[in-house]
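New here. Invent one.

***
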Amino acid sequence: MKNIILAVAFCFSSMCAFAQKSFGGSWTTPTSKYITVIYEGEYGVKDIKNINTVNGITIEETIIKRNKNTFVTRVFNRNNGYTVTVKYKLKNKNTIICKFKGDLNTTLIYKRLFAHKQLKG
């Protein structure tokens, strides 16, 4: 019985990791000066960095939860003092829906600029 539970857990984690790898790449939305770069690791999404296209400032996000087609991060922007949680949901291979909660409450649609097949954060 223990072996069956371990096998099911392994299969589920493998499916989640495979689905999570669909997030990897650079993403943008028309209402932001930032490009969001999502790096993949062996088990799916590993790092998220937001790079300001005007001044080059980088803001890192902390992953707090992962599922098959979603993950949630926490972000603190020192420049404006905003703290938000962001839920990333994969709509299709080139579109992510990001729901922001906290000091900013909105939903934004991000489009893929390009994929980073070779980049492992």
Summary: The longest strand covers residues 82-92. The two ends are 37 Å apart (CA to CA).
